[in-house]
Design a protein that fits this description.
- By secondary structure, the chain is of the alpha/beta class.
- It has 2 domains: about 5-60, Arc Repressor Mutant, subunit A (Orthogonal Bundle), CATH 1.10.10.10; about 70-250, Rossmann fold.
- The protein has 10 helices and 15 strands.
- It has helices at about 5-15, 20-30, 35-45, 70, 75-85, 100-110, 125, 155-160, 185-195, 235-245; strands spanning about 20, 50, 55-60, 95-100, 120, 135-140, 145, 150, 165-170, 175, 180-185, 200-205, 215-220, 225-230, 250.
- Helix 2 (about 20-30) packs across helix 3 and helix 5 crosses helix 6.
- It is globular.
C-alpha cells in the first residue's frame, strides 16, 4: 500500500472513531507499528491528527475552539460572580497560581487589588490587567497558545519544579459528573495538572454550562479538587453525585 493510500485510510478511520489506538490502526491497515507511528507523525505535521499516548485524535475535534476574546464576552455575569466568590477563598499572605481561563482571569483581577497576595500565572489575559492592582504578580513563561492566551509546554513545566502554591485556581473547558474536568489541548492539561500537584488547595472555577460542553483531554477527577466555585446551584441529583467526591461546592445563595 502506498503512503498516500495509508494516510487517507488513517484519516477515514479517525473520521469514524475520533480517538483511535495504534494497534487498531495497525490491524486495519496490516502494517507494522513503526509504519503507523511514522504515518501519524506525517499527518500531525499536516495538522490532520493530534498524536496522544498510544494513538491519535482526529484534529477536527479541536477545531472551532472559540478565541480568548470571544470567550471573554460569554457568560460575563456568571464569570464575575465566580470571580468574587473564588477570590474570597484566598487568604492574605498566600501564594496563588491563576490558570489561563477567562473565569480564572476574573478571579485574578480581584486578587490583584489585594496587597498581601502573591500571584503566579501563565495567563497573558491576566498579565494585561497587572497595572490595575497592587499585588505581586509573576509570569510563568512558555509557548503561547493563541486561542486561550495561555503559556504552555516544557518551559512552563520547568518553572513549576521551583514553585509551590497555597492555592491553585483552575479553569476547565468542559465538565462531566462522571469523569471530572477536561480541556481541549494536551499541553494545557499538563500545566493544569502540574499546578494542582504543586498546590495545597485546588479550586475549580467554571460556570454550570460547562457540564453541557465537550472537550477531549481529561486532566482531573473530582476528588482531585478541593472546591468548585460556580455561578448557580446545580440540580439536586448532580449536587448529590458531586458531594460523594468530597468536593466543596460554592454558589450564590
Amino acid at each position: 500500500m502506498l503512503i498516500h493510500e495509508r494516510l487517507e485510510k488513517i484519516k477515514a478511520i479517525l473520521a469514524q472513531n475520533p480517538r483511535c489506538g495504534v494497534e487498531e490502526i495497525q490491524e486495519k491497515l496490516g502494517v507494522s507499528r513503526s509504519t503507523v507511528r511514522r504515518d501519524l507523525l506525517k499527518l500531525e505535521d499536516g495538522g490532520e491528527v493530534l498524536r496522544v499516548h498510544g494513538g491519535a485524535l482526529n484534529a477536527g475535534m479541536l477545531r472551532g475552539e472559540p478565541t480568548y476574546d470571544k470567550r471573554s464576552r460569554m457568560a460575563v455575569k456568571a464569570k464575575r460572580l465566580i470571580g468574587e466568590q473564588a477570590a474570597e477563598l484566598v487568604e492574605d499572605g498566600q501564594s496563588v497560581f491563576v490558570d489561563a481561563g477567562t473565569s480564572c482571569v476574573e478571579v485574578g483581577r480581584r486578587l490583584l487589588l489585594r496587597e498581601n497576595v502573591q500571584i503566579f500565572t501563565n495567563s497573558i489575559g491576566l498579565l494585561q490587567h497587572a497595572h490595575e492592582g497592587v499585588a505581586e504578580i509573576m509570569c510563568i513563561g512558555g509557548k503561547v497558545r493563541r486561542s486561550t492566551e495561555a503559556m504552555v509546554g516544557g518551559l512552563s513545566l520547568n518553572w513549576f519544579k521551583r514553585l509551590k502554591f497555597d492555592v491553585a485556581i483552575i479553569g476547565a473547558s468542559s465538565l462531566s459528573v462522571e469523569d471530572g474536568a477536561s480541556t481541549t489541548e494536551l499541553l494545557e492539561a499538563s500545566v493544569k495538572q502540574e499546578a494542582m500537584r504543586r498546590a495545597k488547595r485546588s479550586v475549580l472555577v467554571a460556570d454550570a454550562s460547562k457540564l453541557e460542553a465537550n472537550a477531549v483531554v481529561g486532566f482531573a477527577a473530582w476528588d482531585e479538587f478541593d472546591d468548585w466555585v460556580m455561578d448557580k446551584k446545580l440540580p439536586a441529583e448532580k449536587m448529590k453525585q458531586l458531594k460523594k467526591a468530597n468536593i466543596k461546592l460554592h454558589y450564590p445563595k
